[in-house]
Description:
CATH class of the largest domain in chain A: Alpha Beta
Radius of gyration of chain A: 21 Å
Largest sheet of chain A: 8 strands, mixed
Structural class of chain A: alpha+beta
CATH architecture of the largest domain in chain A: Alpha-Beta Complex
Oligomer: homodimer
Number of domains of chain A: 2
Largest interface: A-B, 68 and 68 residues
CATH topology of the largest domain in chain A: Fumarylacetoacetate hydrolase, domain 2
Number of strands of chain A: 26
Strand content of chain A: 25-35%
Number of helices of chain A: 11
CATH superfamily of the largest domain in chain A: Fumarylacetoacetase-like, C-terminal domain
Shape of chain A: globular
Amino acid sequence: MxxxxxxxxxxxESWVESxxxxxxxxxxxxxxFAVFRRAGSAEAPRxxxxxxxxxxxxxxxxxxxxxxxxxxxxxxxCTGSTLNAFMAMGAGAWSALRKALxxxxxxxxxxxxxxxAALLDQADAEFVLPAYIGDYTDFYTSIHxxxxxxxxxxxxxxxxxxxxxxxxAYHGRASSIRVSEHSFARPMGQILPxxxxxxxxxxxxxxxxxxxxxxxxxxxxxxxxxxxxxRAEEHVFGLCLLNDWSARDIQAWEYQPLGPxxxxxxxxxxxxxxxxxxxxxxxxxPWSRPAGDPQPLxxxxxxxVRARGGIDVQLEVAxxxxxxxxxxxxPHTIARSSFRHAYWTVAHMVTHHAMxxxxxxxxxxxxxxxxxxxxxxxxxxxxxxxxxxxxxxVLPDGDxxxxxxxxxxxxxxxWCERDGAVRIGFGKAAATVLPAAR
Amino acid sequence: MxxxxxxxxxxxESWVESxxxxxxxxxxxxxxFAVFRRAGSAEAPRxxxxxxxxxxxxxxxxxxxxxxxxxxxxxxxCTGSTLNAFMAMGAGAWSALRKALxxxxxxxxxxxxxxxAALLDQADAEFVLPAYIGDYTDFYTSIHxxxxxxxxxxxxxxxxxxxxxxxxAYHGRASSIRVSEHSFARPMGQILPxxxxxxxxxxxxxxxxxxxxxxxxxxxxxxxxxxxxxRAEEHVFGLCLLNDWSARDIQAWEYQPLGPxxxxxxxxxxxxxxxxxxxxxxxxxPWSRPAGDPQPLxxxxxxxVRARGGIDVQLEVAxxxxxxxxxxxxPHTIARSSFRHAYWTVAHMVTHHAMxxxxxxxxxxxxxxxxxxxxxxxxxxxxxxxxxxxxxxVLPDGDxxxxxxxxxxxxxxxWCERDGAVRIGFGKAAATVLPAAR
Lengths: 438, 438
C-alpha cells in the first residue's frame, strides 16, 4: 500500500490554474489516467493525465522529451491506443510516472513552458476505453445491497449462507463496456408477466442502474499461481466509476441457475479517468467486520487490510429526465453512499479471484457490485430505492420513477474528501437511455 | 446454411495419402483451421489447415502465391498469430479459402508439387489458441444434463421453469482457456464440509470434466443490433471440442445467487482444430421439440432451424489414469453422446445472445454446455455418471473413480459419420490433472 509522500501534500499547487480551485476533481494531488482523441477527429487514441479542467496529451509529453529514466519508459507505454502496456509494467512504473508528472505540473516547474504544448481542454476530448478489457468480473461486496435485493428475490432467505465467507462474484461481458456518454437502447428480452407462466418478448419495463466502483488490474498473475492477500494491491492499477445497467424483469426470469446474463450484458458504463491507488493513499480507512460476523478465512486476512483496507470513495447517483433536460434543470441527486461500507475490500476481491489459479491480466476490470450503504437512502439502485418498484421515487418537479424511462440520463459521481487532504475526484460516468430498437 | 458442393464429394481424394485413410479425422472433405508454431521453436504462430496426419502452414502457402482473388485475401488473414482477422471476414471468405485449398489438395492438382513445401507433420506442431477470445459464454443446452444436475443440486426442483423457454447461459472466463495438452493444477477453493456450516480451504475433492462443443463466432454484430435467427449461422465460423473443467464442491458452495465462478475459471480446454460449418453440411439433422414441450418463441423459430438446425457430432470422453499410462494402456472410453441431442441449436444460442443488443465479436467462444444424451451412459460429466459421487465408475483394471484424481488424463473426441458421406473428425481436447499447487 502506498505511503503518503510529497505528491499528496495539500499545499501543492499547479501552474495549471484550474487545478487549484477548491471543488475541482483533478487537483495536482490526483493525476488520473485516461485514453482519448480530439473530439470529432479520427486521430489514433493515446493516453492522457487530467489536471484541473485540462489534460496532458501523453503522446505530446513523450515527444517533448521532458522526462528521464523509468518515468520516460512508463510515459512511452502511455502513447498507444490503450494503457494495457503501462498497466502491465507494475506499481514502480505507475508511481515513477505520476511523481514525475507531479513535479512537472507544480507551480514554478521549469518544464511548464514546454508542457503547455501538451495541454488541452478536457471539453475538447472524446474519451475511449482506457484499456482493452480482456475479462470483466462483477463482485457483490455490499452486504446492504445483497440483503435488500435478496429480500425482493427470496423474501424468506435474503442473505445466502455463503455471503459472509465468499466474496461472491460472476463473470460479466467485456465487449459491451463503454466509456461515459455512450448512450444505449433499452434492451429487449424475455419477460414473465406477473402471475403468468409463459414469457413474452418485449422491451424491459424495469430498467435500472447500479452504482459501482470499477477496479482496473495492472500487473497480472500467471495461470496456476495465486496472489497472497499481502500483495494483492500491487496488482491494482486504479479505480473508476461503473454503472452496471440491469434489466430487472429479464434478470428475474433468466437468472436461475447460472446467474445474470442478458439482464446485464447489453451495456456497462465506466468513467473515463482511472484514479490510481497512489492518489487514493490519503483516503484509506480501517476495514473490519461487524461484531458477531465471521472473520475472513486466513487466505483473506492480513493486518494491513484491517488497518487500511477500505477506501472512502464517496459516491452519488443523479437522475436527469428528458423533461428536466428540456428545462435545463441539472441532474437531481437521488442517492449517496460510500465505498467504505463494502463488506469485502479490493484486496479481498483480487486474492479470492486468483485463489484457484485463475489468471488476471493487465486491463482486466473488476466491478465492486452495487455500493448501497446501511441507510435506505444510501441504496445504489432503483430496485432498492423504490422497494422493487412499489414505492415510486418523487422528483422535485413531481415526476415519478419506479424504473428508468426512455430519455432518462443517469450520472454517477465519486470523490474523496477529508480534513487535511485535498479533495480527489473521479469525474463522472453518465449515459442516457434510448428507446428500444424495434 | 451451407449447401452440399463438390468439396463434400465422398469420392474426393488427396495427394496427401494419409488423408485418404478410412478412420482419419482430417480427410480432404474437412480442412479445419488451427494456429501453431513448430514444437520447441520460438517462431511466431500462424494459421494451418489439417490434411490427414499432415497440415499446411498457411504462411508458407501465402508466400508460394498459389491462390488468387478472394481466396488469396482470405489466406493472407491466416498468416498472423490469431485467426480473428480471417474470422471477421465472414462466410464468403471462409468458403472461398476452403474451396481453393480443397482444389489444391486434390489428387492430380497442379499445385501439389509447390504445396509440398508448406506441408508438415501435425506431430511436429505445437498448437496455440486459434483466436484471441475476447468473451467466452457457456450455454446449458442439454436438457438431460440440466435435469440430472438439477436433481443433485435441487432434488425437489430439478428443471427450472425457464429452461424450455430461455437458452440459459452465463459468462465464463476467457483468460484461462487453453488449447489441448496444457495440463493444469487441481484448484484450491472454499468448500463446505458435509453437514458443516463453516467452509474450509483446500484442493477440490470433486474435480470433474464437462463434455462440450465450442462454437467460434466469425463475423460479429454491432452493439445495439440483433441477429435474426435466419441469419444466425452466418456469424458462426466453426466448431471445436471443449472441456469445461468443474470443481463441484467449490461450485456447490459459491454458486448462489450469481452462478459458477471459481469452480470453473481455473481452466477450460479446447481442441486445436476448428471444423467449419461448411465442412459439417453433410451432417445437419432436423431439430424439434419433444411432444408437449413449448415451441420456441418467434424470435427463436425459423423453418431452416427445424429442417437442419441440429448437427450430429458424435462425442466421446475417455479417461487414462496415471497407472494406465504407466502400463501404456490407452485411454478408456467412459461415455458417448451426440450434439444432436441439444435442446437448443447453435442458431438459437447466437440469436438469443444478441437479442438484447449484446455485441458478439470475431473470435468469441460459446460453449454448448455439457452434452449429455438421453441414456444414463451418455452423461457428459462424472457428476452424472457417478450419481453425484455415490456410485463409483469401475475401470477395466478395477480402479474406481467418483471424481478425478491427480494424474488422470481426460480425452474428448468428436466426429461426424453417416452413410454416403466421408467421416469428419475434430481431433481431440486432452489435458492431465496435476496436483494442487500448495
